[in-house]
Amino acid sequence: MSTKTTSGDAPVRLGPGDVLRVGAAGLRTRPMRVFLSALGIAIGIAAMIGVVGISTSSRAQLQMTLDRLGTDLLTAGPGEDLFGGAAKLPEESVGMVARMPDVESASAVAELEDARVYRNDHIPEPQSGGISVQAAYLDLPRTVGLTMAAGTWLNAGTAKYPAVVLGSASAERLGVSAPNVQVWLGSQWFTVVGILDRAELASKLDSAALVGWDAAVAHLGFDGHPTTVYARAREDAVAEARGLLAATANPRAPTEVQVSRPSDALAAENAADRAFTGLLLGLGGVALLVGGVGVANTMVISVLERRAEIGLRRSLGATRGQIRLQFLTESQLLAALGGVGGVVLGVAVTAGFAVPQGWPTVVPVWAMAGGVLATLLIGGVAGLYPAIRAARLAPAEALAAP
Predict the structure, then answer these.
(1) From CA 38, how far away is CA 333, in angstroms rounded?
(2) 181 and 160 assigned to the same domain
(3) Helix, strand, coil: what percent of the chain each, to 5?
(4) 318 vs 25, 301, 313, CA distance in Å?
(5) Residues sharing a CB contact under 8 Å with residue 51, sequence separation 6 or more, in sequence order
(6) What are the two backbone dihedrals, phi and then psi, of residue 56, each rounded to the nearest 5 degrees?
(7) How confident is the model at residue 261 (pLDDT cuts 50, 70, 90)?
(8) What is the rounded CA–CA span in Å between residue 292 and residue 15?
(9) How many CB atoms neighbour CB 231 within 10 A?
(10) pTM summary value
């Protein structure tokens, strides 16, 4: 809409629709320049949205995992004695922990340091693949929340004989994909009866070969002392159970017992992710600042190229305020294009990262709204100087420009 003067020489007011049309007109005449400038803004916003979205999706997946596995699993293991040596848990520690009023179930494993497992008896002894051999209680899956990927868990019969259940990583390293094959364990053949799924709250079991408690005593020289006691406490009494676990597992030397909660490790991992997210947000902010400089550069060039247009509009009665508003609107529209595009791109990046990993795709509304508002602010700041410069051009000077 052209700006005219009324009979009283008062400039005609531009409505919101007129302002948008006039501001958009300058963008339509230079589509490639507009695209490249908006792209700079979009990259910055997409980086910030992607970082927030991936971090939020990760936390949502963590919360789903904790809701599924629970935060009520506690572990007790031997620490050091007064002389700095390795302590031991009593053989009766599992039974004592199981009798605690706040504990619903208890189980244990014991690492057999002198035993190794190999795919066959021709593999050199040092090439153990980092797989530990552990004796296990029969109720370990119920307490820890283990599930089978293939085969079955140990039972009262197989726990007395050379039978073994492999953790998920152990099976992969040994090249075992199904049960009913034999592996060389502790200088004799053991039959694989099952393969575990990934143990999210007991990751050490992933790289373990688990044999029955009685079989470990009979075939592997096991002394009967557990190295990790798992206790599943009531959800409303986890803190109380944790406070009493050390004294219950080893009443004679409670200071030689290390107590932990596996879910705390997941929470610590989440805290580390938050710190890393802050760093990436800073990098996204730098990219957004660079995009803002690109918008300012585009608008300055636009003012220089359109001095004749500015002079013509001024000679037809447009006020300096209307010229300022035109270029500020153009700058805001340019930034908004980048902001909206960046939000869409950021959501796509989040989904592209989360979906293949089985995470929920979660992008906070505040992040999307904040991204668009940030671009509008940047557009206003970036377009302020070019708008003021355009408004200061005298009609005669502008029309005389080449």
Answers:
(1) 9
(2) yes
(3) 55, 15, 30
(4) 16, 21, 6
(5) 277, 280, 281, 284
(6) -65, -40
(7) confident
(8) 27
(9) 28
(10) 0.61
Those residues with Cβ within 8 angstroms of residue 200's Cβ, 6 or more apart along the chain or in another chain? 65, 69
- The C-alpha atoms of residue 170 and residue 212 are separated, in whole angstroms, by 17
**Two tokens, residue 218:** 């009979």
The residue ranking higher by pLDDT, 300 or 371, is 371
Residue 304 is predicted with a pLDDT of: 63
Tokens of 350: 């989040």
In this structure, the answer to whether residues 95 and 224 fall within a common structural domain is yes
Considering only CA atoms, which of 218, 90, 125, 215 is closest in space to residue 162? 215
**Are 136 and 154 in contact, with CB atoms under 8 Å apart?**
yes
283: left (phi over 0), alpha (psi -120 to 50) or beta: alpha
d(CA 273, CA 262): 18
Query: What Å distances lie between residue 44 and 352, 374, 381, CA to CA?
Result: 18, 11, 16
Question: 358: alpha, beta or left, given left = phi > 0 and alpha = psi -120 to 50?
Answer: left
Helix (H, G, I), strand (E, B) or coil at 361: coil
* Same domain? 169 vs 186: yes
> In degrees rounded to 5, what are phi and psi of residue 213?
-60, -45
**DSSP tag of 123:** S
Two structure tokens written together for 314: 């001024």
Instruction: Show the tokens assigned to 163.
Output: 């039978």
Q: How many domains are there within the chain?
A: 2
**Same domain? 393 vs 305:** yes
Parent domain of 376: 16-66+267-399
Q: Is the dihedral of CA 126, 137, 169, 65 positive or negative?
A: negative
Instruction: Specify the higher pLDDT residue, 154 or 295.
Output: 154
Q: How far is CA 229 from CA 80, 97, 172, 219, 275, in A?
A: 16, 8, 26, 22, 33
- Same domain as 219, residue 349: no
- CA–CA separation, 168 and 157 (whole Å): 23
C-alpha span between 227 and 212 (Å, rounded): 15
Tokens of 330: 């153009």
Quick check: 179 and 163 in contact, CB under 8 A? no
